Amino acid sequence: MRNDQRPPMRRTLLRLAAGLGAASVVRLVAADTAGTPFRRPTAPSTVAAGPQSALRTKPLSYRLRPMTANTPPRYRPAAPPVRTRPFEKLPDIGRAMVLTFDDGPDPLYTPHILDTLRKHDVRAMFFLCGEMANDNQDLVRRISDDGHTVGNHSWTHPLVTKLSRAGITDELGRTSEVIEKITGASPLWYRAPYGAWNRNSFEIGAAMGMEPMAWTVDTLDWTVPGTDSIVHRVREGAAPGVVVLSHDAGGNRSQSVAALGRYLPELLDDGYRLTVPRRR
Fold this sequence. Notes:
Order of helices and strands: HEHEHEHHEHEHEEHEHEE
Radius of gyration: 17 Å
Helix content: 25-40%
Shape: globular
Oligomer: single chain
Strand content: 5-15%
Mean pLDDT: 82
Largest sheet: 6 strands, parallel
Distance between the termini: 31 Å
């Protein structure tokens, strides 16, 4: 999302999303990457970059493929079922937490977040807006090359529940296409803007091979509440399986950057593993 403008119903939608509860268990495993170098698993060769119009030349059947046809079998999980609610926390991953960042990548803030994660040898999930990814392709490559999970956060950050099925397909399909073009792999996770989900988004996301990911702890950093407030929310919500929502774009995210530098080493000192989920 390019700016800090949010529809006024955001608070209501966030409360609605929080009340959905944890999703049914899927075969997930937390990747224990401590001590391993930042290196992306072998992926198919990246398609040569072209004009933006090239992203929309593939037929709809391409957008609805569960996963990339050329992906090596060991990196191709089973197609997911159609969910009725998103994952809000991850079960059975031990004393581990997941950090997630939405709306980027942003050339001003995302590099600082990546630097902090690299410093502590931690992986996170980045849910990218397609228009931001297309405008900042080198940053998308860096996120992927550093071993982070690249997720789909729609193209323009719309309120998905107000879109037709064709509109949702376009928003998710274009974003998956640009991510695959840049990184060589289609995203396996997506997050609805504002946490607003509906049956159409669950069905279309699953048809594209993606699982829906929500969150457990909302830092509310988009309200620019102050670095101390962001750190406090993360520390108070810390628990095994928790998914933390923060932002690396969409407005002034300097507080989010500063807060990460404080709470991340504290979580590690408390014995938490900061990891990313892998599907199998």
